[in-house]
């Protein structure tokens, strides 16, 4: 019995709260028609705004297309400018490379010409030196002056031959004639075998 009485007491205490809740629910139920009318008004307003939204969407699409075309034209112009700049840079680089190649070819040709000239000069000097030291064919080998024995008369003839210019300009008949001795010894020329 005590337990039932306690439960009944708690229910009685909660009745005012449940009553207040029921009253609030009743008020909300009473507001449902007004809420429904407000929703219908909002729906009608939205239906009225729909054509405006469609028109705004169309204007936005046209504006976006226009902006896209302008951007595309601007991008195309920038790409053309960049392409022209790259072409100009390539032409400058190609011109510089051609000039450098021409300089290299010219320097190489000049170097080859100078080298060929040096080789030719060296060969010419070697040839001249070889001709200077090589005896001529069918010509007796020259011997030192000490190895040549001249008689007194031949020595006088050579002195007369190598006299000054004024003496050589005189007529031959006026030159002093030295007696020639038939028995004068001839010039002795040493052959190659004398040096061996």
Structural account:
The chain is mostly helical and 196 residues long. The protein has 2 domains: 13-134; 137-166 and 183-196, no CATH class. 75% of the residues lie in helices and 0% in strands. Mean pLDDT is 71; it is low at 143-147, 164-176, 178-182 and 184-196.
Question: What's the quick description here?
Answer:
The chain is mainly alpha-helical. It has helices at 2-133, 152-161, 165-169.
Key descriptive features of the protein:
196 residues; 75% helix; single chain; mainly alpha
Helix percentage: over 70%
Note the run of SSEs as H and E: HHH
Number of helices: 3
The termini sit apart by: 170 Å
Query: What is the structural class?
Result: mainly alpha
Q: What Rg, in angstroms, do the CA atoms define?
A: 68 Å
The average pLDDT value, as a whole number, equals 71
Q: Which spans have pLDDT < 50 for at least 5 consecutive residues?
A: 143-147, 164-176, 178-182, 184-196
Q: Which shape, going by the Cα principal axes? A: elongated
Strand content: under 5%
Query: Largest beta sheet, briefly?
Result: none
SSE blueprint and pairings:
Elements (H helix, E strand, L loop, with lengths): L1 H132 L18 H10 L3 H5 L27
